[in-house]
Each structure stands twice: as C-alpha cells, then as structure tokens.
Specification:
Elements lengths: L2 E6 L4 H12 L6 E8 L2 E8 L2 H10 L7 E7 L14 E2 L5 E9 L2 H10 L11 H14 L2 H9 L4 E9 L2 E10 L4 E4 L4 E4 L11 E4 L4 E6 L2 E6 L8 E4 L15 H7 L1 H9 L18 H6 L2 E6 L1 H18 L3 E5 H4 L10 E7 L5 H12 L3 E6 L5 H4 L3 E4 L12 H21 L4 H22 L3 H9 L5 E6 L3 H16 L2 E6 L16 E5 L7 H15 L4 E7 L11 E5 L7 H19 L18
Helix pairs in contact: 3-4, 4-5, 7-13, 7-14, 9-13, 9-16, 13-14, 14-18, 15-18, 16-18
Bound molecules: 5-amino-5-deoxy-1-O-phosphono-D-mannitol.
The site of 5-amino-5-deoxy-1-O-phosphono-D-mannitol has 16 residues, from helix 9 and helix 16.
Length: 615
C-alpha cells in the first residue's frame, strides 16, 4: 500500500526514481509524485491518477538534473486521490519534502498543535503534518536525521517516511515503523524502496530496516540508528531473483505471466524440502520437535486469497494430523479475544509479509503466548521477522494485484507443514507421508496440463461479460476454491460474485438463482469421498432446475457430470486434497479474461493495492 523510492548516487535521480515507481505502481496507483533538490530549492511534481500522468507531466516540463531524489505512488487513505493530496508534501517554509506509507494516527492532535503556531494545512492528508513537524524540528536540531528521530518519537501509527532537505541536497533520511522499507546497496549509490523490485535493475544487495529505525542515506554510505540515535546492527541479504522476474517477460499482463509461472512456483516450493527417502526435511521450522508434538490446536490467520489457502489447508491438517484447526480472518482475530496458549500453533499466511491485519494477529498471538509460524513469499518482510519460524513459498515476485501463484504455493507450503507435523507426531507412517509427498510432486506437471487447455475458458468468459452476477459453488476443499474464484471475479471484473458451500445453497442463497445466471461448480473427484460427488450432482440439478447456466469444473474421465453441465471445463484427475491446485487455475483465467473483455486494468484493479499495510 503506497510505493516509496529513494535514490542517492551518480545516475540521474529522476530516471531512477521514476523507473522504481514503475516497478512499485502495483502497491498503489491513485497518484504519483517525485521530489529532488535543484538550485538549492525543492522541485516537487505530483499528479493524481496513474504514474503515466506524472510521466506525461515530466515529459512536458522536465525536472533539472539531480543526484538525489525520492518518489511515491499512492493508495489513498486520508484524503481523496487528488493532485493536492498526492505525495510528496512540502513543509510550510518550503525546506522539507516528505513521502509516507501508512497512517499517522495522532495527526489530528498534531494538526491542532501546528495550527496554534500558524501552520495552515493545504491537503487533507495525515502526511502533511509530518512535513511541517519535521521542518520545525529541523530548524532546532539542525540535522535532518536527528530531526527525523525526534519527529518520529511524536508520531503514532504505522509509517515509512522519507524526507529530503533543500539545504542538504545529497541526502535522504527515512524512518520505519510497521511499514516496509528496504535499502539497496550499490557501488557509490544507495536506494530506498518499499520492496526490492524498485532497485533490482541496479543491485541485488539489500538490507531490511527493523522496527523503529532511521536510515541516513547518501551516495557513499548509509547509517542506521534507532529512534534514539543509537547505532543498530543491520542484516544484509541478497535478492535471489533477478530483474527479469519483475518484468512481464513477453506477456501482456503480469497476471497472465504469474498464472503461467504456477507449475514452476509449486515445484520451487517443494524444492529442497523432500529428503531422498521421501520424508520431509523442514529445517526452517525452528520450533523444537518436542513442542510440535505438544501442539493441541492450530489456528490459521490470513486475509483474502491467503485466507482461502488457509481454508483449504484446514481439511488437510485435520485429516492428516488429527489436530483441530480453525481458520480466521486476521482482521477479526485479535478483536474477539481468542483463547491462546503455548500449545496452540498459529500459522500466519501472507504473500507480502506486510499485511497489517495479519501482522497484528501475529503480534497478538505471540503476546498471548502462542507459537507463530509464518508462511510467506517475501524474504525478510515483517511477518516472518516477527514470527517464531517461517516457511517461505518460492513463488518469486507477484506483481499483479490479484494473487495467483502465491495461492497455489501457500497451499503447498501449509500442506508441507501439515505433513511434517504428521511425520514428527507419528500420525502417519513414513511410507504414507512419502506417498502424499509424491502426489504433491506430481502437481507441477498437472498444473502445466491445465494451462494447456484454457483457450475454451477464455472464450467462455467473454460470453459472460454482461452477466449481472456469477455464483460459485463447491464442497470440501472445492468450497474455498469457489470463494477464491468469486474473489478473483469481484476484484478484477467488478461484478457481483459469490462463493458458497454447495450444501448451503438450499438454506438461502438458492433464492438468487434466476433464468440464465451463470453458476460455476467445482466438482470433487468421484474417487474421493463418493458421497461428495453424488451430493454436488444433486446441487447442480437444483440450480439448473431454476434456470442457472452451469459451468462445471470436473476431472478428466468424470462422465457422470456431463449431462448436467452446460459448459464443461476439464482438469486432470488428482487426489481430493490436491484438486484445488488444478481447479483454481481455470477460475483465475476466467476472471482475467472476463475483466479483459470488459476493458479493465487487470493488473491494477480499481480501489485496490497489492500489499495492504493499513488495518
Ligand atoms: O500479502 P497477503 O497474502 O497478506 O495479502 C492478503 C490479501 O490482501 C490478498 O490475498 C488479496 O486478497 C489479493 N489481492 C486477492 O487476489
């Protein structure tokens, strides 16, 4: 949520910053802005709308050369997406410019205080208050880093802040509390960004800033301190992927590229975690085996797509490990005062590792004494840093706002955790674990097979571009798949879409069925729990009898469903618990194609941002 870029070095700062913003635009695209110091004064340009608007502005009226600069791409919280509310915000006497990701919770109190000093706000944002506060602090402290530290001590809420001082043009100072910020280390140049993709063209060496830290950045060095000015030890890391992974690579859309990358993402998530004897080696899970044996309940916390991955995982965890498992929306978790003990394992699932709702759930769980294991895709992000252990999904960067490859790899990662628990607790014999691991290892190939057969799904989606509403139904693990299919359609096609447990239809939602309404049905494998298959056939008949057009996703060879399907989408046969890994893929493609047919911006759907760093 909001992308931040900063640069100090030997290249033209404006080009580096705009290039970085392009890479970070997925984090927010309500407005964009940039600031440099030229001829001893701040030069700030900002524009509502996508980055292209700012670029057009810069083309028409280029900024002067500078070696230090910062930029911002916004997802609006306080104040609408206007030119005035766009960042950077400039202090009243024009000395300091500030960009911000997060929310300053005490901004009203600070605004009142500044008003008494005669400061008049020009925007509706919470950020502007920081620019004024920083300027007055700087006038007393005389040094931007010290002023930032003092100002941060007065702020509450979540923030990454970057500031530039017109009287100190070769330097950027940034602060971090609860919002992401990484520093890129180059040769005679340094970078700041919300994530590494902003500077991956220049360096793969980075450091992640910790909580409540300030970084003082110049071309020739960085100094990191805490908010009191004490030096802190930093942990450098090397980014394992390259610039090409953050490019579209010949695809029209990031989403299409990421859908196509799913077989590799699943394979990479398994890589190195299966021993030659077929058992699991999860060295990353640094929770002692003795403690894992004592776990008497698992609670999964996550949001959106990651929550759906958790819902899928619940079926596997309870079936394989015989441990009760609850799945909870992270945004609800801490507010219902959950009962947590040392014997409860909380699994937090997050692609970005920065989702504020999930982070707050993690903190609450740990405060209450539970162990937290993170399933995350972003190295060094906040959620894994604050958890007891982490298992990384290896999906590579996911840029499209709609999550695709992260979902599949989250399912695989939680399955690995579940099997590992079953292995160390003795719920399954070694040969049973190895047999399921073999099923998982077959999945990249099966996902590949699905990808080869999706032309018909694209054509079908286009036919339904004018539908008022689309319903999705499923049973067992097909139920969260139905929810995920509906979420994809909502966020990309802006259509009414709902997912239901198929058995629940008759308790109310069946009243939504009317002539011609498309109902997408995720059919469980007939060789799984036979009864599930029979029951869903009945559910299909119920909706058809009331006029629905059925689009049925069923495995190859399942001929029983054929008479009940107005449209049939085939997926390879898989064991029941593996089916979400194939049946989700046509739903991703369906939503993507339908949104494209409607002319929507698929990679950057309206009102959304990739990582949601506010509660
Ligand atoms: O980064 P996270 O996995 O924590 O993100 C959670 C949700 O915000 C995310 O999955 C969201 O629902 C997706 N945009 C859905 O496609």
């Amino acid at each position: 949520m909001c992308g931040i870029v900063g640069y100090a070095g030997h290249r033209p700062a404006v080009d580096v910053v705009v290039g970085g913003l392009k890479r970070l635009e997925y984090r927010g695209y309500d407005s964009a802005g940039i600031a440099v110091v030229a001829d001893g004064a701040l030069d700030v340009r900002k524009k509502a709308g996508k980055l292209a608007n700012l670029q057009a502005m810069l083309e028409a009226d280029p900024m002067k050369d500078a070696s230090t600069g910062m930029g911002h791409t916004r997802w609006a919280t306080h104040g609408g997406p206007t030119d005035v509310n766009a960042h950077p915000h400039v202090s009243s006497r024009g000395r300091v410019a500030v960009i911000h990701n997060g929310i300053i919770e005490n901004f009203a109190e600070l605004t009142a205080e500044l008003a008494e000093q005669g400061v008049v706000m020009t925007s509706e944002t919470d950020t502007e208050v920081v620019a004024h506060l920083l300027e007055s602090t700087l006038e007393q402290a005389g040094d931007l880093a010290e002023a930032m530290r003092l100002a941060c001590q007065r702020l509450s809420g979540a923030f990454t802040l970057v500031a530039i001082d017109a009287q100190d043009p070769d330097r950027l100072v940034a602060a971090r509390r609860n919002s992401p910020l990484v520093v890129g280390i180059g040769d005679g140049e340094h970078f700041l960004a919300s994530d590494v993709s902003a500077f991956i063209d220049y360096t793969r060496d980075a450091i992640e800033l910790g909580q409540d830290q300030v970084v003082d950045l110049r071309a020739d060095g960085v100094v990191v301190t805490d908010f009191r000015g004490q030096p802190v030890e930093v942990t450098p890391f090397t980014v394992t992927w390259d610039a090409a992974a953050a490019e579209k690579g010949g695809y029209d859309l990031f989403m299409l590229k990421e859908i196509a990358e799913q077989p590799k993402a699943v394979a990479d998530t398994l890589l190195g975690r299966i021993a030659p004897d077929g058992l699991l080696r999860l060295d990353e899970i640094r929770i002692p085996v003795a403690e894992l044996r004592e776990v008497d309940k698992i609670v999964i916390v996550a949001c959106g797509t990651a929550y759906h991955a958790g819902m899928v995982a619940k079926y596997a965890i309870e079936h394989w490990c015989r441990i009760p498992c609850e799945v909870e929306l992270a945004s609800e978790f801490r507010y219902r005062d959950p009962i947590l003990t040392r014997r409860i394992l909380v699994i937090a699932i997050s692609q970005s590792g920065e989702t504020m709702d999930t982070l707050m759930a993690v903190r609450h769980a740990r405060e209450q004494g539970a162990r937290v294991l993170a399933i995350c895709n972003t190295n060094g992000s906040t959620i894994p840093r604050e958890s007891d252990a982490v298992l990384y999904t290896q999906a590579g960067p996911e840029i499209a706002v709609a999550s695709t490859k992260a979902f599949l790899t989250q399912i695989v990662a939680v399955y690995l955790v579940a099997l590992y628990l079953a292995q160390v607790r003795g719920n399954k014999f070694g040969d049973e674990v190895a047999a399921i691991v073999r099923q998982l290892a077959d999945m990249p190939h099966k996902v590949d097979l699905v990808l080869d057969t999706l032309e018909g799904v694209r054509a079908l989606a286009e036919q339904f571009a004018e539908a008022q509403s689309v319903l999705f139904i499923g049973r067992h693990v097909g139920y969260p798949v139905a929810l995920e299919g509906a979420l994809k359609l909502k966020e990309l096609a802006y259509m009414h879409a709902e997912g239901f447990a198929a058995g629940e239809l008759k308790h109310g939602p069946i009243a939504l069925i009317e002539e011609g309404i498309p109902v997408i049905v995720v059919v469980p494998p007939p060789l799984g729990r036979g009864v599930l298959h029979e029951k869903i056939i009945s559910n299909i008949q119920e909706v058809r009898a009331r006029g629905a057009v059925t689009i049925v996703i069923a495995e190859e060879g399942d001929e029983v469903v054929t008479p009940y399907a107005d449209h049939l989408i085939r997926v390879p046969a898989c064991p029941t618990l593996m089916q979400p890994l194939v049946s989700t893929v046509p739903l991703q493609v369906f939503a993507c194609a339908l949104a494209t047919a409607k002319g929507h911006d698929v990679d950057q759907p309206r009102n959304l941002a990739k990582s949601v760093t506010v509660e």
